[in-house]
Amino acid sequence: MVFVDSYPKTSKLVRSEFIVAFVALGIGALFGVIQALHRTGAFRGFVSSADYYTLLTAHGVLLALVFTTFFIAGLFAWAVSSSLERELPQRLAWPAFWIMLTGTVLAAVAILGGLFGAPSVFGHSLSADVLFTFYAPMKAHPAFYIGAALIIVGSWIAGAAYFKALWEWRSDNPDERIPLQTFMVLTTMLMWYISTIGVAVEVVVFLIPWSLGLIQNVDPLLTRTLFWYFGHPVVYFWLMPAYLVWYTILPKLAGGRLFSDPLARVVFVAFLLLSTPVGFHHQYVDPGIPEGYKFIAMTNTMFLLLPSLLTAFTVVASLEHGARQNGGSGYLSWLRNLPWDEPAFSGCALAGLMFAAGGFSGMINAGMNINYLIHNTIWVPGHFHLTVGTAFALTAMAISYWLVPQLTGKPLRQRSLAVLQPYVWFVGMALMSNAMHRAGLAGIPRRTAEPTYDEFAFQGVAGTVAEMRLQIAIGGFLLFVGAALFLVVMADTLLARRGGTLSVNGSIPDPLSGPEHSPRILDNYKLWTAIALLLIVIAYGPPLASMVIDGIFAPGSPPIPV
Ligand code: HAS
Ligand code: CU
Prior knowledge:
Strand content: under 5%
Radius of gyration: 23 Å
Bound molecules: heme-as, copper (II) ion
Number of strands: 2
Keywords: Electron transport, Heme, Iron, Membrane, Metal-binding, Respiratory chain, Transmembrane, Transmembrane helix, Transport
Order of helices and strands: HHHHEEHHHHHHHHHHHHH
Distance between the termini: 68 Å
Number of domains: 1
Largest sheet: 2 strands, antiparallel
Protein name: B(O/a)3-type cytochrome-c oxidase subunit 1
GO cellular component, one term: membrane
Strand order of the largest sheet: 1-2
Oligomer: single chain
Family: Belongs to the heme-copper respiratory oxidase family.
Structural class: mainly alpha
Number of helices: 17
Pfam families: COX1 (PF00115)
């Protein structure tokens, strides 16, 4: 039976989450191409350089925060409901959706107000050019911070719906192992609860009162630290849903089965333990944080590579298994036996391939000394367009080709556009991100409309600056085309009448090695959460304590040994 007929209520919820996500994707992608053209000087007619920062903030917030959170809420709702075989508790899930939507509208109005002369609303000018990493000392209209807080609170309530579904399932199935997809969702949510405490404190205790004028000063170091306490784990909040897809659905699309369920559980537990005590790797250049604690963050980050390296092994092994079921052979020629004309498959596989490159640039970012070379250069956007902008975004688009028909009962329309779309994204991103990485090595800064300075010539380490700019402009344009193709396919499919036969079904074949091959302790959430919290206390306790002791509203930092 199709998902929409088995679980009509949850289907409606997932469709609503996806529609908000897709609208955010469309607007965010439009702002993205405008920026790419502006920054590279290819075409500067859309906005002034002053408005560039408004677009940049909207681009980052709509894509990295709104598109991701709503898509993930939908994907998780589907994954929990289908793997526990029940409707999601609607009384929690719908309020979560509406709260998140209210927050999104508030934040979007606050940002876009900047394009209309930042009119005064409630005594504060309506603008929020604070970028998606919205820490002090840049200040936004209170509506922006209240909106951000509502998005977070909504996501917490959405998480409560998944846990409630698990408890209901548990009372019917006291001795069974938690199904893998639900296990992955809940582990991600535990990580999310722990890490969002940082941004919640930042926003509620400091930024909202500060933007309302209730307090005059905030400590930039403290708010940055609270932000990055959340800002690193949030990237795994984007990655783990992509992994859920790669582990549980991609092997089936390749014609095979997951290689190992226990290894998948180990990977998710490792993320729960290690995602948070690493945030200082975004603050290597911040004064006021002892070098020793930056070193601990670096070491933890290097350990945190492990779950992704295990994933590369398990997922590729599962794909190879699938290809060999389809007659593949040889060391590498089995790659030809994968369904490259199936957009759900090709999108996820290409996203995985690009993530291998993005993970590699992440390893470079994480090195305390090499980081000084690339920090605040356009290398960093090069890195995150491969990770969140491809590993997550392309996986989300690709799996929509597979999920949306099951959520609507309508076959995918415009199939030929869908087949083309992942390749357009891949080529666009290959051009844009490689040039961004190289431009970063030449020292070209990020977060600016005017990346070149008068009387200063950047020296390309590999290639010329003009060639890199051209590649960024062409790549950015192709990415916009890629997003537009996806949205056309989705709009046409969602608006079509129900009819015709579906060529997809949601059944997931059993893994080659199932959960019975792993110890039950892996499913012990209390234990893993306790260890995760302990690691955070070790990594953050003393530096945070000294920031608090020197006055939480006092700008400045603890004395720095020179
Ligand atoms: Fe990062 C900055 C370090 C992963 C996102 N990162 C950012 C920022 C973002 C971001 C948004 O240490 C910028 C924030 C800002 O605005 O300032 N990152 C890392 C490390 C990893 C990493 C060590 N990042 C991510 C992921 C992201 C993301 C995932 C989003 C989803 N990152 C950093 C650091 C900075 C940073 C520093 C600060 C830089 C600075 O100075 O500002 C690791 O988790 C990466 C591990 C990944 C691997 C790759 C494994 C390969 C796999 C592919 C398998 C292949 C398949 C395909 C499935 C080791 C899993 C098979 C197909 C076939 C056909 C066979
Ligand atoms: Cu990070």
